Amino acid sequence: MPREVRERQMLDAAVAGFARHGYQAASMDDIAEEAGVSKPLVYLYLKSKEDLFTACIRRERAALVEAVRGGTGADRADGDGPRAGGVPGSGGSGAEQQLWRGLCAFFAHTAARPEGWSVLHRAHTQGEPFAREVAGLRAEITELVTLLLGRAAVDAGCDEEFAEREVSGLAHAMVGAAESLAVWANSRTDAVPSPKETAATLMNFCWTGLGQMIKGARWSPHR
Amino acid sequence: MPREVRERQMLDAAVAGFARHGYQAASMDDIAEEAGVSKPLVYLYLKSKEDLFTACIRRERAALVEAVRGGTGADRADGDGPRAGGVPGSGGSGAEQQLWRGLCAFFAHTAARPEGWSVLHRAHTQGEPFAREVAGLRAEITELVTLLLGRAAVDAGCDEEFAEREVSGLAHAMVGAAESLAVWANSRTDAVPSPKETAATLMNFCWTGLGQMIKGARWSPHR
Amino acid sequence: MPREVRERQMLDAAVAGFARHGYQAASMDDIAEEAGVSKPLVYLYLKSKEDLFTACIRRERAALVEAVRGGTGADRADGDGPRAGGVPGSGGSGAEQQLWRGLCAFFAHTAARPEGWSVLHRAHTQGEPFAREVAGLRAEITELVTLLLGRAAVDAGCDEEFAEREVSGLAHAMVGAAESLAVWANSRTDAVPSPKETAATLMNFCWTGLGQMIKGARWSPHR
Amino acid sequence: MPREVRERQMLDAAVAGFARHGYQAASMDDIAEEAGVSKPLVYLYLKSKEDLFTACIRRERAALVEAVRGGTGADRADGDGPRAGGVPGSGGSGAEQQLWRGLCAFFAHTAARPEGWSVLHRAHTQGEPFAREVAGLRAEITELVTLLLGRAAVDAGCDEEFAEREVSGLAHAMVGAAESLAVWANSRTDAVPSPKETAATLMNFCWTGLGQMIKGARWSPHR
DNA sequence: TATGAATGAGAGTTCATTCAT
DNA sequence: TATGAATGAACTCTCATTCAT
């Protein structure tokens, strides 16, 4: 059996095992058995448990990023043609649509591959080498979100400074909210919401606030 | 040395160890050594590794909840007398202020006790008994947030149905965003923001959006 | 080295260790070392200390029962054809001969495998799961003896009632006497008696008494 | 509280604990708790677990020996008055009566103090220092039985050689049979036999055989 | 006399990992 | 390419035993 096929079997088994039991509790014995191969073969192909887990993270990370990027249309020639423009809240900005589609893609992906998502979501807890890897993923996503938010702000005519000073925190908030909603949506037993519904919840939650900020309004405790 | 003191030393050491290495990777040997105590004593007082970790979670959970509850003023006689009222966005609602102060307290607490926060934040990954414990914490906080959001909505004169149908999802988003921001704030090496700044970021992010929702506006992809 | 061979080595080492130190005091380290093997291998093959000890008991029990059964000729087609008959004391009963040969086999076996015998003899002290196992052995042997004694009684023409009422106690006495003699014979440093001598001692001790009982005579304190 | 009283409490608790769980499995913690004292006090009075167990054995051994000796009337001025005389089987020998009464006393004692008996019965399994102690008890009892059997033989007019050559083995058989019957009687849940019944079972079993031997008859396999 | 507090030493068990084939 | 056989190292947990008071 060709190496690539075997290797994918192993990664599948590993993702399943790590998702179910976590990094430490999943044993190489179980993973090898689930993959239908002997343990030495796993070591021959994937070096060590650490490397195996890293490979899982990388694969799932790539899949998630590809899904979200695809959703935003970032890979399509995007600046072409007239953009609908407009501020958040006024409807139809290109960046706004991209964000919306990215969120939809994100929730669709995490719902479609719960085990992969579980691996990613749990990996930052598992010690240094993996935390770094997931931090990379988070940075990648956050950067994308930051870009979109920033572009929306610029579209709306607000100064560059805003993008640099405040958008990053907002992006972090958004990513955290999305993460939380993904877990929540995946774990519901009753009426599990569709990806679009979940994405709409998040857009409802924050988009207007963002629009206000771009206009220069700030929330403050004593008004 | 009296039992209570020793026990607190052990819990301190355990929180530090679990925060640094995670549940599985932290060894009882190391924890005992860090506590300046022999291993058998740890077992004598805290029964088992599982019980020790549970005790850590419970302690930190209680501290966090107390801090946040105290921040919201939930323990003060608060509903009495006429409330200032007001919609989100119009300033000065009782619920809005409570939420604001709760967030400040939350970010202040997580910044003041990074290890305790780390334990709580990582515990849901560490297998069933612990996941349940932090799920309880999350539920407790989410319920509080749901209550505040719902009350704000009612204050603003919107129908009860809103509270029941949508507020829960929003609360989850908010809790997730707060969690993410807490980690992010704690992990920054440059210019770490004050708790109030972080809380303001989150309020800016979502409060206006919430106000719009209460008024009946909904975000939709094709406008 | 093939699994079966290794497994037998381990059982041999375990029987030796348990015989020398008892269940609790024998350490898995020592057993593994004596078997010329690492500890994990012992666990891989035999699961746990408890299972290992149980396996020892079962093996030695089977060997002992087989030896004794073989000695009685119970496996040969023995009841067929006219039996020589005869009461205890009158010589030559089939049951009497079987008992004699069974005793010889028993003492020969316990002398030939002192460690195995020691394990069996000491196991009833070592807690529930093992006590049950040797209780089974004891019951098996006692039942065999009861059968032979009962048959001898019936051969001698005594009523069935005798067999049911009193033979069981006698069988217990006989088994206990045999057990005691086996230990005693094994532990002698001077002139250790041959199995046949030991068996003859026991037959001398009780056979005539049994014959008298069958005839209806009873010992009583005040005659 | 005076030392003697405390010490007896501890021994009582220890006997109970050792009887229930065996030497190794009984913990000093449990014993101290059952005795209603702190652990250091146990160590102050009884030095170590080994010494504690030895003390238990010695106390129970002394009690058992005293009971049996008392039963045989060995401590009474025994040669006085006319003895009934007679061979085993012919009724009424002094030695025979002594043996009978000794057996009754033995079974009565083991039934009355099951925990003490359990300690003694299990101690020979627990490693060297204790095995020696119980071997001493066994030797003491066996010697007594040997003496009685030998005296009976001499009473019956058989030569001295018999006593020296064969009586010892018979005594071992008898002691083993008695031991086995004691355990069996103690462990029965249905109709537990009285000490006298158990003793009668044993006398029935062996006394006539012994009588025959004294007369010079020997059992042999081929008659 | 009596104890609360503490520990050294060692047990059973598991797991990632590697030979030899 | 693939594996049955084997292990070093580490972990959780327990227990007899002793200070300091």
Automatic annotation (TrEMBL), chains A, B, C, D:
Q: Name one GO molecular function term.
A: transcription cis-regulatory region binding
Q: Where is composition skewed (Gly residues) in this entry?
A: 82-93
Q: Which residues bind DNA?
A: 27-46
Listed GO biological process terms: negative regulation of DNA-templated transcription
Domain of life (superkingdom): Bacteria
- UniProt domain HTH tetR-type: residue ranges: 4-64
The family database entries (Pfam families) matched by this protein are listed as:
TetR_C_46 (PF21943), TetR_N (PF00440)
Q: Where is this region: Disordered?
A: 70-93
Q: Is Secreted among this UniProt entry's keywords?
A: no
Please provide the record's keywords in A-Z order: DNA-binding, Transcription, Transcription regulation
What PANTHER family does the entry give? HTH-TYPE TRANSCRIPTIONAL REGULATOR RUTR, POSSIBLE TRANSCRIPTIONAL REGULATORY PROTEIN (PROBABLY TETR-FAMILY)
What is the official name of this protein in its record? Answer: TetR family transcriptional regulator
What organism is the protein native to? Streptomyces nanshensis
Q: What is the lineage of its organism?
A: Bacteria, Bacillati, Actinomycetota, Actinomycetes, Kitasatosporales
